[in-house]
Design a protein that fits this description.
single chain; alpha+beta; Beta Polymerase, domain 2; 2 domains; two-stranded antiparallel sheet; 8 helices; 9 strands; about 20% strand
Length: about 190
């Protein structure tokens, strides 16, 4: 049985391994999800690592990672594939919130050093937009999102997040909570 420190270390090693392989392949990608927030100063996740690749490159990326000896699994969901590094899970998404990831969107991503590996990392604005758009009736845990929003609040264009999440009532409720807690300025 592993403890939390071992789990975090294993996830960070999986993150680096997949990132280096993607970099060496030349396939455009970016770190996403909880570890992208962590790279920007947020809390460290404890479940998995997320990357995004363009939908047009997904099959090529999966094949390349499998050829390099990684355990690639095609789940029933049609918007990602999974890579296992030991017991650590890396999700490689090619759609986020129902929208295809494009090469063009990945060309605009800032590169950061994460665990001594330079890699593209989604912006805090995009990450918060994605996280809030994922809120829905069966997944609406504001307690998990609050530390994330607090940690990266100064890096986020909140007007852009409001616009990107305007059709999601759960996101609107969360943004209202952030305003009431004085984490962000009220809209307008």
């Amino acid at each position: 049985m592993t403890d939390d420190n071992d789990s975090g270390r294993d996830l960070r090693e999986a993150l680096k391994l997949v990132a280096v392989n993607l970099k060496e392949s030349g396939i455009p990608f970016a770190l996403a999800g909880g570890y992208a927030v962590w790279a920007r100063g947020g809390p460290e996740p404890d479940h998995d690592v997320d990357f995004v690749v363009a939908e047009d490159d997904a099959a090529k990326a999966a094949a390349m990672l499998a050829e390099r000896g990684l355990d690639v699994v095609e789940p029933p969901e049609d918007w990602l594939f999974k890579v296992y590094v030991g017991e650590s899970l890396v999700d490689v998404l090619f759609q986020t919130n129902g929208e295809s990831v494009t090469r063009e969107s990945l060309m605009q991503v800032e590169e950061l050093e994460v665990e001594s590996v330079a890699m593209p990392v989604l912006s805090a604005t995009e990450l918060l937009g994605q996280k809030l758009n994922a809120l829905e009736e069966h997944a609406c845990d504001f307690g998990r999102q609050l530390p994330v929003a607090r940690a990266v609040r100064e890096q986020v264009d909140w007007d852009e997040v409001r616009a990107a999440t305007a059709d999601n009532p759960f996101a609107a409720a969360f943004l209202y909570l952030l305003e009431r807690l004085a984490v962000i300025e009220p809209a307008g």
